[in-house]
Design goal:
single chain; 181 residues; alpha+beta; five-stranded antiparallel sheet
Length: 181
């Protein structure tokens, strides 16, 4: 059971704080309810204490797990991605994975979308999933490791930025300049 002021994670919403524990009567049954304030978007959730585990409410990952997830994100070539599938199949697959309470599953979605985005433009839905995955992963890892969320987000985006395509006109003018010297 969580206590007031504990930090928790609610799947697909992110890091939140238990603001209070209330007693409510739902359908004639009295039960305890966690009132959870999600940090990233100021949403307040009511989660029945007895169902907290079944809906995926969990503690933040520990520092070792956060560091492992961050390291796997930094390894930009570790695993293959589903580039060959059509975008709506990937979107459905990734949408299902985003519901997972396991941060490493959400981080894998983020990594794959970042890798795909290097080579081709993501669909609107995939871009939204990437933003959501980025928010969830960065929110929790930055909280656990005590790093700036903006710095972490920027370093991940920079790491997965597409490689610039050389401008042929600049290369041609450089060749002409060096040939004339």
């Amino acid at each position: 059971m969580y206590k007031v002021d504990d930090l928790v994670v609610y799947p697909a919403q992110g890091v939140g704080k238990i603001n209070r524990i209330d007693k409510k009567s739902i359908g004639g049954v009295n039960c305890d309810i966690y009132i959870v304030g999600i940090q990233s978007n100021n949403i307040t959730l009511m989660v029945p204490v007895q169902n907290a585990g079944s809906v995926g409410l969990r503690q933040l990952v520990d520092k070792n797990k956060a560091a492992d997830i961050l390291e796997s994100l930094k390894n930009t070539t570790a695993r293959n991605v589903y580039v060959g599938q059509n975008w709506n199949r990937r979107f459905r697959k990734y949408s299902d994975k985003m519901k997972s309470p396991d941060l490493s599953v959400v981080a894998e979605v983020l990594r794959e979308l970042l890798v795909i985005g290097r080579d081709k433009e993501l669909s609107y839905g995939e871009r939204r999933l990437q933003e959501q995955a980025m928010s969830l992963v960065v929110g929790e890892i930055s909280e656990v490791l005590g790093v700036s969320p903006d710095d972490l987000r920027n370093s991940l985006l920079e790491m997965y930025a597409p490689t610039p395509i050389p401008d042929d006109s600049k290369a041609d003018s450089q060749k002409k300049t060096s040939a004339g010297n």
